[in-house]
Amino acid sequence: MARLLLADLSELSARAPELRQRLLRWWQTHGRHSIPWKLLSDHRRPEPREQLDPYPIWVAEVMLQQTQLQVVLPYWQRWMEAFPKLAALAAAEDHDVLLLWQGLGYYARARRLLAGARQMQTQIEAAWPQDQASWLALPGIGRSTAGSILSSAFNQPFAILDGNVKRVLARLMACERPPARELKLFWTLSAALLDPERPRDFNQALMDLGATVCTPRHPRCEQCPWQVHCAAYAAGDPAAYPVTDAPRELPFQVIGVGVVRNDAGQVLIDQRLNEGLLGGLWEFPGGKQEPGEPIEATITRELQEELAIEAQVGEELITLEHAYSHKRLRFVVHLCRWISGEPQPLASQQVRWVEPTELGGYPFPAANARIIAALLERLQAESSAAAA
To answer: How far is Cα 348 from Cα 12, in angstroms, rounded to an integer?
Structure first.
């Protein structure tokens, strides 16, 4: 068979039916058919006219933003046990939602999901909306997430454009520019390829192709149903696509952190404001080290400025590094002894003295898990030494 290339969109209309047929035939055998939110209550895959409950799909789609399926699955299962219906989530406390989300990262997604549930709860009566505008009006829902919910739940013909799909389409066209710079083109291609009769299955097949065959570093081109049409494969280097912009160097900061204990052995924690990447989470107080400033002075200053307390900075507990998408941080953590001042939430929502054994009941950023573990290990060692 002659090699067919999608060098430009002008060839797409004639070849779209064959591409759909090839992809869906491959998916029938090799697709991921056990994803729980894509099945009916009797664990069957839905027929085109059957609908799925959009709530568990919505939860999953938000979790899948920036996170892989195998990571999301246990979180989704715990979430559905705690909040099995929209009404349960809409009535939930922020604290409980963030605690369940702990470890998934990008915590703004959890806050937006909760806000969206409360908004949706006031809007729907007998039926969920099946139009794109209603879903786009919810916080944290973009065009691709809305398209995935509508196609998955209702078999509506809405295209998607997540990371897997962008990679597949970039290779199919051998696009010479990063997908982020050609979004209009990619949306046009995704919509043109979409099977109007089986959008639910087609979108899932397209995502499965990217997740299991057209992978970022080592694509399995010999298993791909679109190999014969793929311009990147014809060019001889599929892994060179998608083209990316040159990576920028991430800024680096050192953060001084104080684990402050009072005479009763309690630990001081504060809750971040409901904004930014880690909004609403609890943390040990601290802040950015200024140029030339000793880390002990950083911690003393931050405790004064943010909590209005005086504390004696003691020995180092742990140093750890953590990378976010926009910066790299080194946390230098010291044990501190509270001296004076009633803690005030000058830069946070609230502050609280808690028993060290109760720290697991509060949602913390991922990096703090190691701080808590180091603290509990230190306290255990102190207890053992005192008993000896």
So the answer is: 54
